[in-house]
Design a protein that fits this description.
309 residues, alpha/beta, 4-stranded mixed sheet, 22% strand, binds acetyl coenzyme *A
């Protein structure tokens, strides 16, 4: 994550908001925002730490997938920048865009490649510099998001992914949108001027609290498990109220839903891997534990998985 911590009180000094409004509605108290860091620089650091944790060297990595909506360039991709920086010369590298579900989508893509035997060792990331696509005059969106990157190593010889589910609903895409790609072609009469994230918060809330429990129930059924078999539910960190509502609908104690949003805010594709890393660093994860991961957001998209640690 970036060095610079920005608290709700810091925000209240530059816009008409308050710690009370933000924390009571979202659970967010602070987030980190980039000053000198970039999506690539955070991703490279996260990749190196993931390789160290997994005991994997760059020459073993043959696939790099970065889930991001905020790569530093249209091209080269963030994945190619990581490849060059870590010296993973034989890896194939590319980015995907599935917004807040991105890490789950990257995991599923890596799993498919590994299962058919094309590659053996993948480096997957969720990485975002969301502060670059916020409208800093729109207090209803900019207070929600943060910047950061999370990485994981996935290997063909480890059978940790027990089941997964993913889906998309493009018809509802504009409830959480960021056009941000104006066309300078002289034939285009009215290039879009909507450059920043625009969200219908209540529609996103309704989408999340219905789709996420149903997706989690699907992966549990596919894995032949019930909620009681699951040690932790590591959800995309959008909003504490969404997490509480999902826990209630699944009839699972909120204690099984670890959170990082109080100090991270919503980091889209990066939120699930950063949460998993925090759980790992705190010593919460023991071999054999079963964990549900779930991401949901822009597209609209959603993805869930059951993994065995
Ligand atoms: N500070 C102070 N007041 C604010 C702020 C702010 N930062 N933002 C909005 N307000 C005001 C509004 O102007 C409005 O004032 P008004 O009544 O005088 O017009 C009032 O607060 C209520 O605004 P709403 O937008 O109706 O607020 P709501 O109660 O719906 O809460 C929220 C907004 C927290 C975003 C809610 O809709 C929500 O939880 N949505 C879920 C979506 C979400 O979490 N999205 C995250 C990104 S998407 C994803 O990752 C999946």
């Amino acid at each position: 994550m970036p060095e610079t911590v920005v608290t709700n009180d810091d925000l209240s000094r530059i816009m008409d908001t308050s710690d009370e409004w933000i924390s009571s509605r979202t659970g967010i108290r602070e987030r980190r925002l980039v000053k000198d860091e970039t999506t690539a620089s955070m991703s490279i650091k996260a990749s190196i730490r993931a390789m160290e944790n997994a005991g994997v060297t760059a020459d073993e990595i043959d696939l790099i997938i970065v889930a991001t909506v905020t790569g530093d360039h249209v091209t080269p991709s963030t994945a190619c920048e990581i490849q060059a920086a870590i010296g993973a010369d034989k890896a194939v590298a590319f980015d995907i865009n599935a917004a807040c579900s991105g890490f789950l989508f990257a995991l599923h893509i890596a799993d498919a490649y590994l299962k058919i035997g094309t590659y053996k060792t993948a480096l997957i990331l969720g990485a975002e510099t969301l502060s670059r696509i916020m409208d800093w005059s729109d207090r209803s969106t900019c207070v929600l998001f943060g910047d950061g990157a999370g990485a994981a190593i996935v290997r063909a010889d480890q059978t940790g992914l027990l089941a997964y589910d993913q889906g998309s609903d493009g018809a509802r895409g504009m409830v959480l949108a960021c056009p941000n790609r104006s066309n300078n072609n002289p034939l285009v009469k009215n290039p879009t001027d909507m450059k920043f994230v625009n969200m219908d918060g209540q529609e996103v809330y309704k989408f999340a609290v219905t789709t996420v429990p149903s997706s989690i129930n699907k992966v549990l059924a596919e894995a032949g498990l019930t909620t009681e078999d699951i040690d932790y539910f590591a959800l995309h960190q959008a909003n504490i109220r969404i997490i509480q509502a999902v826990a209630k609908r699944l009839k699972v104690s909120e204690d099984k839903f670890p959170t990082s949003l109080d100090h991270c805010g919503n980091i889209s594709a990066a939120s699930v891997p950063i949460l998993l890393d925090e759980m790992n660093q705190k010593g919460l994860l023991k071999p054999g534990m079963k964990i549900v991961l779930s991401g949901f957001g822009g597209g609209l998209t959603w993805g869930s998985a059951v993994i065995e640690w």
